[in-house]
Every structure is written in C-alpha cells, then in structure tokens.
C-alpha cells in the first residue's frame, strides 16, 4: 500500500542517531526558513546508542570529543555509558527542536533523483505502508553496519549447548548472569567492555580469543577538566579539554603509525604495570599486527586489567574445537565450563542502510562510485552522507560534514544553482574506502563506495586536515559541478562556480 500525496521538504535526513541529530542541526542552520524531516526506522532517538544495550555498553571515545561542537559536553566524566550518550543525543534533539522533525518507524527503502526537477523522491515504509517524500537534498546518516544482525559465525556443535547463546547486538533484557559461568568469545571493543561488566556479579567470566587486541587504560573522569572548570568556568574548560583530547588521540595514532615498534613497547609496558608479574603478556595482549592497524581498545580506569588481576575474570587465547553441552572444547584439549556463551564476534557492515539509490531511474551501485571529500558519491547529485573516523571520535567528522553541507547550500543559493554532482576523473585509480584491517571491515568493504588515490577522492582520517578541507577551503573544484535544472534554466548542464 502506498500513500498518495508526497510530502515536500528541503532536506530528508535518514537516521536519528548521533550523526542524524547533528545533521538536523546543520540543516536548520543552512535553511533557517526551510523544512526538514528526519526519518528513523526505530522508535527512539539514539541509533547505535539505542540499539546496543548489553552490560557496560559505552564508547571508546571520550565524551569531550564525541560531543557536538555546537553543544559541548558539560561534565568531567570522560568515558560514559551508552545510556548516557543516548540521553545526551535526545536532550540535544529536544533543545534544538529536532525531536519535532523526527518521523519514527519510517524505514527508507528507495531514493531516486530526477535531474530535470533537481529533486529526490524518497520512499519509506511505515509499517506496511509506503510513504513518499520529495526533497532537494538527501542526507544519509545510516552509519555503516547492519542493525538487524551482527556477525555470528557458525560454531561447531553450538546446537548442543544447553544454556543461552547471546550476541551483544541482541542482548535479552531478562538475561540473568549473576552467579553464572560466562564465556565471552571475542577480543574486540565489545568483549573488552563486556568482561568487566559481567564480572561484577558473574561467578566467573572467561574472555576466549583467537588472537589478541591492543588495549590501553584511559581515565573515566578527566581531572584536568575539573581543575580547569574551577579556574576558568565549565564552558571554557570544556573547549580546552576537547582540543587537548583531540591532540592526544591524534598524537597517539600518528606515533603508532610512524614508530610501531617503539609504541608496541610503550603499550606493553603500560599493560604490564597493571597485571600480575607472571601474566603471559606475549600470548594474551601482544597482537601480530602493529598498533592502530586495527582500532585500539580502551579500558576505562583499566577495568579489564583489574578483573583479570583479582581473578574475577580470565583470558584464554586458543582455537575453538567445538561447543559442548556445558561449555567450549579448545584445540589445546582444555575445556571451558560455561552456563552462558556470549558471541562478541563483531558487526556486519551495510552500506547506506541497503537503500536502493537511483539517478533518473538508473540504479546506483555504491561499490561502483568514488567518495568525494568522504561525504558525497561520484555521479550522484545532491546527496551527502556521514562516515566518521575510525581513529578518533565519530562526531568530529560528522560535524565537519554538516558544516561543509551548509557552505555548499549557501554557495548554491547565492548563485542560483539547484544541484551539484561530483564527477569522477577518467584517470582516477581506486582503493578501499577504509584503510583498516579490522575483520568486520574486511568482510564487507567491497560492497561500499571506493576511495580514490588522491584528494579530494579519499576518506581522510585526519581531523586537522579535514578542518582545512571542509571548513575553510574554497568550494571551487574541477571535480565538482554545480548546475541548474532544466526546469529552472531551460537546459541541463554545468554552470561555472
């Protein structure tokens, strides 16, 4: 069933998570007298921070840099819970008036751009009813993974296990782990988060990993921010703390990439200081890859090291032979007794929420496009998307994308253009969009847009570079065509910018 009357707005934002609520703010700044709707498939604000509800869920990024530039984090708490992050997003939407623009339960399934009218027609499902919107600009804030399912490899013998087998993405609200033996399969950020949280009440928790991950301790509370707040006031302190944290994260990342051997030794020394002297660091906390070839995991106040040191949890590095009725049999011959199995085995990536995108009726395969400035697609007019940093806070990039969108709209409106389109150079070579060796990325990266080998066709992972490129650099670019539609000018074609 399809509703008959499309709703016409200036911008459709897809997604009401951290990116979408931030995008709606920037849209309001770009169109102070315009209209915007935010289409959200779920029934609550928050996106990732509404979906994930497993024990201890949090972000590896500090809130001072994860918060929006236009609404600084006002607390000295640095690493906070997922519920706190969702509350921050929800309060931002309420204070900004964005909550009134959100249409919950609207899952976008199709979007088609018409060059003649310079408009998108967006189709969303509301229950079993298809609802249409038309807009000038389509702003995708869908994240990059599948909300319906996580990555769960088939474990041999899994059907024989008599207890619950749970993936963190579908954590049951009524799961009681108190006094139970829990085996968490995985070694990434989710496992590192789960183990200390479960260990608070479980009989014992084992983190079973096939290979180790780099982990560093990070303070939950920023004491420097507290001291600065008493001297110069909380708002000014928040700004300084934000820049301090961005600088530290950037320096850590570049040090790891430039001096990997030295940084291995630094991380090892930091880990050793928090673990018993006889702990096997080489086996359990020394990965085969260099630091930041995959995303670094953070342990707030070193919580994972604390529960390993006091015996509430243990870590096993081995290969699963099979799942048994009461635990996990390992290739080494060891058996891990368990009442609950948690498969913290990663995410499943999904490009743009699997929306069918078309231009003038011709389907667009994301994997056949190049990303322009990490926020637009070659050959696709009036579309902007947000993919944040993998080596820093996601919101840092999301805010810059929003600011650049505002500049684009102002440029177009001042010159009478109604659409833009990035045009791929004929000689441009391709490379994967994300330069990261995390397994969840490697599994699905071929379904995503590609990056070029030179600017502006790369997704950059440098906040300081992107500040210049997206906030200040001139908009004129041989690869970017601004145009007037046939309806507006009587012809179709590029117009000098």
TrEMBL record:
<protein>
    <submittedName>
        <fullName>Flavin-binding monooxygenase</fullName>
    </submittedName>
</protein>
<dbReference type="GO" id="GO:0004497">
    <property type="term" value="F:monooxygenase activity"/>
</dbReference>
<keyword id="KW-0285">Flavoprotein</keyword>
<dbReference type="InterPro" id="IPR051820">
    <property type="entry name" value="FAD-binding_MO"/>
</dbReference>
<dbReference type="InterPro" id="IPR036188">
    <property type="entry name" value="FAD/NAD-bd_sf"/>
</dbReference>
<keyword id="KW-0503">Monooxygenase</keyword>
<dbReference type="Pfam" id="PF13450">
    <property type="entry name" value="NAD_binding_8"/>
</dbReference>
<comment type="similarity">
    <text>Belongs to the FAD-binding monooxygenase family.</text>
</comment>
<keyword id="KW-0560">Oxidoreductase</keyword>
<dbReference type="InterPro" id="IPR020946">
    <property type="entry name" value="Flavin_mOase-like"/>
</dbReference>
<dbReference type="Pfam" id="PF00743">
    <property type="entry name" value="FMO-like"/>
</dbReference>
<keyword id="KW-0274">FAD</keyword>
